[in-house]
Amino acid sequence: SPEVLAKYQPVIGLEVHVQLLTETKAFCGCVNRYGGEPNTHVCPTCLGLPGALPVLNRRAVELAVLAAKAIHCEIRETSIFSRKNYFYPDSPKGYQISQFDRPIAEHGWIDVPALDAVGAEVTKRIGITRLHMEEDAGKSLHDGFGDSVSRTYIDLNRCGTPLVEIVSEPDLRTPDEAFEYLTRLKEILLYTGVSDCNKEEGSLRCDANVSVMLKGAERFGTKAEVKNVNSFRYIRAAVEYEIERQVEVLESGGRVAQESRLWNNAEGRTFSMRSKEQAHDYRYFPEPDLPPLVVGETWQREILTALPELPEARRARMIAEYEISAQDAMTLTATRAFADRFEVAAKRAKSPKRVASLLTSELTMRLRLAGLEQEQSPVSMEGLVLAADLAESGELSSKMLKQLLDTSFA
Ligand code: ADP
Ligand code: MG
Ligand code: ZN
Fold it and tell me: Is the CB of residue 226 below 6 angstroms from any atom belonging to ligand 1?
């Protein structure tokens, strides 16, 4: 019940894996591309054949640094790749090249819209513990082969895809905050262009760590980890479910098990996958086939020249520069391309504010009704600026303006 739930304070920390948009894989020259005929984007290195040696992809480092800077992390000048040892059928080397105690970046943050204790809108700063580089595994495929017996097939095309893992501090307190954090993080990653964040293709994957404690308690409760949920809405639902489940366990006198769980969307609940007692000991040790990674000041500065204005800052500037509302600024900066298009138009218009409102209301409404994306608009930005100018100078009434939009849209 709500009264019982209200006695507890949820604590949430997120681990997000992001595929980097490089031409080639992290440690070999194979193409880094989603899909393809199974086991065609492979070579001795990403297949883990004996004697094949990894060579670090310079571009992957640059994208990792760019992502790290965009979330306000400090870059470690000399970071170390480590082997994370475990057996898994789609990981042929028997280990994953990752980073352990000396990751490339730490101590960042993201600002997230949240509600305070009395329900007022506030901005909350969520800490980022670390961002480290690692490689993706291949894929196990179970369905669609028309087998009479159940078989598993292995596709290693994804093996060695460059990833960054971004680990948050346990600073999130509600399912909504988790949802907002992910939305903001994805927006930043898209703006910097380090990833396409395509969730259907697994470019952005999230594990959610959840615990509950009695309000006012000094120590966090035991956490459970929900693995690999691929939609922000499902993550919110999974976190919500976990909070209720854990409260129920505690209220009935039990203890929350430290374990990994899986989200079942059809049933709207999580299931135990493995407990921490069966958990892996990864036996991390420094990767002997790769030297320490050194990203000196000069290289960092070079990389930083590619850092664009980030969504938060861009919204603030646009509100000041064009006198638009916070709501309009939010809509207009939904993607970098959309914001770019608006700004080109705004600079030509008599009233940028009017362009903004036409774009976010009249045009967006018509696009939505027609099931079209912004880029597919039959009304050009030039046309919109022209219409806004005519309205601004009083040559078009607001009724005429709507008719004009209808006509040109049709
Ligand atoms: P592990 O060693 O089990 O992976 P970490 O300490 O590395 O645990 O934390 C992993 C993630 O879990 C981080 O995002 C962190 O913020 C989060 N986390 C840690 N402790 C808790 C807790 N008690 N409740 C919720 N989340 C937590
Ligand atoms: Mg973990
Ligand atoms: Zn390869």
Answer: no
Prediction pTM value: 0.92
Supply the pLDDT for residue 375.
81
> What is d(CA 241, CA 270) in angstroms, rounded to the nearest whole number?
7
Residues 367/374, Cβ–Cβ less than 8 Å: yes
Cα of 305 vs centre of ligand 2, distance in Å, is 33
81 alpha carbon – ligand 1 mean position (Å): 22
Tell me whether residue 85 is exposed, middle or buried, using C-beta atoms within 10 angstroms of its C-beta: 0 to 12, 13 to 18, 19 or more: middle
Pocket of ligand 1 contains residue 170 by CB under 6 Å: yes
Give the side-chain half-sphere CA count within 13 A for 407.
8
φ/ψ (deg, to 5) at 291 = -70, 165
Displacement of CA 293 from its chain's centroid (Å): 25
Phi, psi of 216, rounded to the nearest 5 degrees: 85, -5
pLDDT digits (tens, 9 = 90+) for 339-388: 999 999 999 999 999 999 999 999 989 999 999 888 888 998 999 999 99
Is-contact 363 356, C-beta < 8 A?
no
pLDDT tens sequence across 292-315 = 999 999 999 999 999 999 999 999
Strands 81-85 and 95-99: antiparallel
220 has a pLDDT exceeding 70: yes
Tokens of 208: 């959610």
Q: Is the CB of 208 under 6 A from ligand 1?
A: no
Query: Model confidence at 17, in pLDDT bands (50, 70, 90)?
Result: very high
